[in-house]
Amino acid sequence: MRALFVPLLLLYASGSGRAAGASGAKGTRFVCTAVPAGTDLSCPVDTSSRVQSTSPQEEELRNTIIQLRETILQQKETIVSQQGTIKELNSKLARCEADARSRGSARRKDYSKNTMGDLPRDPTETVQQLGKTMQSLKDRLGNLEQLRANTSGGMFPNELRDLLKRRLTDLESQLLTRVAELEEEKSQLYNETATHRQRTDNTLNSLLERITELENSNNAFKSPEDFKVSLPLRTNYLYGRIKKSLPEMYAFTVCMWLKSSASPGIGTPFSYGVPGQANEIVLIEWGNSPMELLVNDKVAQLPLSVSDGRWHHICITWTTRDGFWEAYQDGERLGTGENLAPWHPIKPGGVIILGQEQDIVGGRFDATQAFVGELSHFNMWDRVLRPIDISAMANCSAYMPGNVVPWVDANVEVFGGATKAALEICEDRLFDS
Ligand SMILES: *[C@@H]1O[C@H](CO)[C@@H](O)[C@H](O)[C@H]1NC(C)=O
Ligand SMILES: *[C@@H]1O[C@H](CO)[C@@H](O)[C@H](O)[C@H]1NC(C)=O
Ligand SMILES: *[C@@H]1O[C@H](CO)[C@@H](O)[C@H](O)[C@H]1NC(C)=O
Questions:
Q1: Residue 217: which pLDDT band, with cuts at 50, 70 and 90?
Q2: Nearest CA to ligand 1 atom 13
Q3: Domains of the chain (ranges plus CATH)?
Q4: pTM for the structure as a whole
Q5: In the structure, how many helices (H) and strands (E) does the chain have?
Q6: pLDDT at 306 over 80
Q7: Does the C-beta of 372 come closer than 6 Å to ligand 1?
């Protein structure tokens, strides 16, 4: 019975020693052995050296013990190698986890970055953007209606207005439904959003086209130059565009009638941007600064002041020769200067925008620099006009269309709620002052 008892104890003791080793305590290992009362109490390892003085029973016991120790040592080796395997697996697992985490965050980033071109971005962003587009369309429709209501009736048929209203309402409810859907099933919306977005975009585009068409609808002015462009709000989306571009020029004169009471600063009556130079020619009155002429992004301050809410005629001339300029208001030359972009030829092929300052050619407008008011007879020549020509235009005794940009209805497009309306400046101006 004893022989059986001892191995059990041995197993138990060496097992707990290993466990202690695994949890950090190193080196010492205790092996306990049960022995009969009165026997030699020296360590079992040493017993082999005393074989001579022991009984056969004891010897058998010792042999058993030695065998068992062998077995245990073997097991220990196995366990150690298993520990190695476990460690390796653990580190592999950790690496996998880390990879998975970084992949997860990278994917989240990609999602909001919209790397797929036009197709889905973050759903919330999509919805917000659609919401904004809806709002701006509604604002534009509102403007349009108000402006049409203020001019003589009949230009904006009721059916059309109702149709647009209905379509806006439809779009709005579509949008709301979509928002609800998105809230519900955010996980599988990737493809669906793409299709839906496309559908909504199509509808919005056709609506946009219709509105622009209405804004540009031919009013059949008395003669092609008898109209004005109104830019009633300070926004970054109301503007007019001259369909013609400019040739290369070594001098120019630009004249216009304008009316504004905006403050501080009337904004940007016009800007001409070319690829590589958004500020090729800009007329701007921004914040509390005086009116400025920019040529090739160089600045001259002009002694002009027009923001009293009345019509004023202004002309600016410039020549590349010494960068000499003149500024006229209501037919009078109020200032001259030189060294404004001297010897710079005005670059051809750009875009003339009425009412906005361009940060890139034809776009990226800034609401704070928008012109608020009305413009008419925006004409441009590729030469410096004589003072007598300018005063004759200003006192309405003569009208000369620009030789590079004439003010004609077919040449001027309006966008975003800007409108064209009939105006015979030389008649209407009289009632104004
Ligand atoms: C239309 O007229 C009303 C009142 O006459 C005026 O308050 C409103 O500002 C005008 N709207 C536009 C866009 O000119
Ligand atoms: C998403 O669209 C692509 C191409 O239209 C298709 O191959 C794919 O199966 C779609 N995935 C899901 C989850 O519907
Ligand atoms: C208008 O200006 C022109 C050119 O300066 C001048 O000859 C003419 O007398 C002016 N007419 C009036 C009515 O002031």
A1: low
A2: 147
A3: 2-54 (no CATH), 60-212 (1.20.58), 225-432 (2.60.120.200)
A4: 0.53
A5: 7, 14
A6: yes
A7: no
